[in-house]
Amino acid sequence: MRKKVTYSFKNSLLLKDSILQWAQQFYEVVWLDSNDHKQKYGSFDALIAVDALTSIKTDDKNAFEDLKTYQKQTKDWIFGYLTYDLKNDVEQLNSANPDGVEFPDLFFFQPKKIIRICGEVLEFDYLNMVDDEIEEDYQEILKGVNATEQKATKTVKDIHIKMRIFKDDYFKRVNTMLDYIKHGAIYEANYCQEFYAENHSIEPLKVYQKLNKISKAPFATFLKLDDKYLLCASPERYLKKMGSKLISQPIKGTAKRSKNQDEDRKLKLLLAQDEKERAENIMIVDLVRNDLSKNAIKGTVLVEELCKVYSFDQVHQMISTVIAHVDADKNPVAIIRDSFPMGSMTGAPKVSAMKIIEELECFKRGLYSGTVGYFTPEGDFDFNVVIRSILYNQTKKYVSFSVGSAITAKATPENEYQECLLKAKAMRQVLEDN
Questions:
Q1: Cβ 264 vs Cβ 257: under 8 Å
Q2: pLDDT tens-digit profile of 268-326?
Q3: Are residues 162 and 405 in contact, defined by beta-carbon separation less than 8 angstroms?
Q4: Going by C-beta distance under 8 Å and a sequence separation of 6 or more, which residues neighbour residue 340?
């Protein structure tokens, strides 16, 4: 069904840029980049899937069952995304807040062309119907590598980024959430806010490349679906399946970086010892353990790593790793459904947290805090968490990025607000410099 051809190469950075540029001719593009993070559970350095042979696009009604059918029938690589609002398919919930970007709730496609970068090997994995184009595409990509760098075009006008809610309103809503916690409705919830710009055009690829350059995140993604784009610098894995093994790596706990090495080390140590941040992380770890246990073989759910602090270019992050094992006959889509949406973007108890989030947030999350990834022909998969991301509807000229933080009993509105601004820094920077 597919033909594989490999080539050797040296300069991966130039190659990545050229592959991305080459891919812009297609209506469907998913690019995944590990940015040279040497991860224990990594499968490639970078990968791109383009040009749909078949696809599925749907709203939240019966979405997971439809995906299950599509994945079974295709028996091939499929790439795509699940928006946060598929919560409505998992539980008796709804999404009534305004949606500026308007991504379909679910989209997956079977790509005609897949290209992987693994070390110094470039692998083309094409459906047989287009395998005669491998050499031509390779030469086209090489041409891009050797081309001289184009001069940046001038932006037509400065971007005017608006806040969906202002600081006073944010404080009021966080205090309402704290009241819910005080009265025992929830222990923790991830509260998010949107920043947006209307009637503004951006060059999606250039913005993505700038965002990726300053973030260098391990789960970076460039996604294109017709006129809609995701430019993602995510540090977080949602869920991966490798054979019988499941791996989830929730993030809870954020601290800023410093250019002063001593101060940066102190900031990292303070995060590792922060009781509030550890409590947030441990609560979500418990939630993830519970989610994975729905499908796991009894006794196999384990916390491999608890509250370990990792450093990224923009921030320090507290990450835990939870693993489990499943029987071979477990349906891969069902495994995802039973843990969706991811605990790090919801709260505990999950359903109550999602109800309160819907009540207090002022925008439809859509693809933000959803997930992008792929299924293999064997039923393995790997999905990120869509955070630190810019969403763009080219037709509407609508640009959006959202940030959030975990609200617990020990949270203060001012500290949570400052954490949101810290997380928003990279997206704001690349848009204002565009």
A1: yes
A2: 999 999 998 999 999 999 999 999 999 999 999 999 999 999 999 889 999 999 999 99
A3: no
A4: 82, 86, 87, 90, 371
d(Cα 82, Cα 20) in Å, to the nearest integer?
A: 22
Within 385-434, where are the H helices? 413-432
pTM of this structure = 0.95
Instruction: Tell me which residues are annotated as active site.
Output: 236, 252
Distance CA 346, CA 361 (A): 12
Among residues 271, 291, 277, 370, which one has the least CA distance to residue 63? 370
Contacts of 219 (CB under 8 A, 6+ apart): 32, 34, 232, 234, 235, 236, 237, 384, 385
Whether cis (ω within 30° of 0) applies to the bond prior to 204 is: no
Query: What is residue 313's three-state secondary structure?
Result: coil
Token code pair at residue 112 = 């005609």
Question: What pLDDT digit, counting tens, does each position of 39-54 carry?
Answer: 889 999 999 999 999 9
Q: Please report where in the chains the tokens 């607000």 appear, as a residue.
A: 417
Q: Crossing angle of helices 167-182/413-432, nearest 10°?
A: 140
User: What angle in degrees, to the nearest 10, is found between the helix axes of 350-360 and 167-182?
Assistant: 150
Encode burial over 150-169: b for 16+ CB neighbours within 10 A, e otherwise.
Answer: eeeeeeeeeeebeebbeeee
Residue whose entry in the numeric block shows the structure tokens 């700038």: 210
379 Cβ neighbours under 8 A, 6+ residues apart = 71, 241, 331, 332
